[in-house]
Amino acid sequence: MTKIPSLQEIKDITRTERIGAHSHIRGLGLDDRLEPRDVSQGMVGQLKARKAAGIIVKMIKEGKITGRAILIAGQPGTGKTAIAMGMAQEFGPETPFTMISASEIFSLEMSKTEALTQAIRKSIGVRIKEETEIIEGEVVEIQIERPTQSMGAKQGKITMKTTDMETVYNIGQKMIDSLSKEKIGIGDVIKIEKATGKITKTGKSYTHRQDYDSIGPGETYIECPSGELQKTQELVHTVTLHEIDVINSRTQGFLALFAGDIGEIKAEIREQIDSKLSEWKDQGKAEIISGVLFVDETHMLDIECFSFLNRALENEIAPIVIMASNRGISKIRGTEYVSPHGMPLDLLDRLLIISTDPYSSDDIKKIISIRCEEEDVEIHPQALDLLTNIAVSTSLRYGIQLIIAADLVSKKRKADLVNVDDIRKVYELFVDVKRSTQFLQEFQDSFMFHEKNNQNNNHNDNEKDK
């Protein structure tokens, strides 16, 4: 006899969510006057940088700037990417936001300029407006005439009304099937698109509600529409320029967006699209939405990419480009010239530069506390102090990475809190950059292809030549 498992024996299936490095960021943490709060929306410290970023966000939302570039510059681990993620949260879903790493440009199977062009056009939205004829009203009666022969098509009539008028419409097989699929009945308020025949149920009329009716989660009672049955409705579609490019450059149309293999797009197609959009813009049918392109690790771009970006910012349709770099005075990739942040001076002259400062120990403690809450880790106050001291002496990133490792150690001993011993154990198991460098310097001769002795030999040879 088959045994049926009890509820206690059935394991709970929980939905797992990946916790990213910046999943705790909800915004820039500013008030209505754009003044930064000390700790808000996952952001800690960096008050000047957050306020500057908030001003940029406000100007972009109001459409006061376009075709500009901003550089977020600072030491590693000072929250540059976190500020960019906070800006993305502030923009909302209506503003296109594209995030790429500079090294991606060189790993794609297309030219560098094509990869940058696609990234730029992904960051420019188009709000297309169109008018369509609809029939909106309350269903009074549905009559279906079934054919005498089984092979014949169904026909029928539907009676619809508003508070001002009532009309009978003839319907065919396709419309009858749609009514049956949407489970349309008497008293339902529906919309019918005349061009496509699509039926949308918006709710049920209050006149057909009874006191004993139970309202389900998908049931909504609304007023009967007023005015004419046939109306003109404005529909708004928001897409990006890149999506329009792909649809018009591939034979499979919009399905190419899901294929992944987009490849390069001809310049002639883009010129035709830009010309058509300019025409629609003059007619009031389309509206250009200037979005944001965030390029992380910008110093990894070479001189050709910088020149292309410099020219692209001068176009009539251009997004806001936000860059981030942790380099000081270094070589521009592809040249022997040295420049601040590893970027050409003519491009730097175009940028609004936001600088980030190193975090204080109090800020680091608050960040680690927020990350513990995000990763659902309970930590003892003394362990939090020890982890803060470790992050101050090594790096914030290293300290954050020890959180989940210490939590696993505490669970291994079936504890509810991460204590000091758990932090010490993972600190001994996983070394930071400083200890790893010290180990390499002590045991350099034991590793293959070490450069230390070779450099000393070359130095001695040079001394002998002199």
TrEMBL record:
Look up the EC number in the record and give it. 3.6.4.12
- Gene Ontology cellular-component terms listed: nucleus
Asked if Transcription regulation is a keyword of the record, the answer is yes
Any one GO MF term held by the record is: DNA helicase activity
Q: Which organism is it from?
A: Anaeramoeba ignava
Keywords, in A-Z order: ATP-binding, DNA damage, DNA repair, Helicase, Hydrolase, Nucleotide-binding, Nucleus, Transcription, Transcription regulation
Family classification? Belongs to the RuvB family.
Pfam families tied to this protein: TIP49 (PF06068), TIP49_C (PF17856)
Q: Which SMART domains does the entry link to? A: AAA (SM00382)
Q: Where in the cell is it found?
A: Nucleus
Q: Does the keyword Lyase apply?
A: no
Could you state one GO biological process linked to this protein?
Answer: DNA repair
Q: Which domain of life is it from?
A: Eukaryota
All copies of domain AAA+ ATPase, residue ranges: 66-358
Protein's recorded name: RuvB-like helicase
- UniProt catalytic activity: ATP + H2O = ADP + phosphate + H(+)
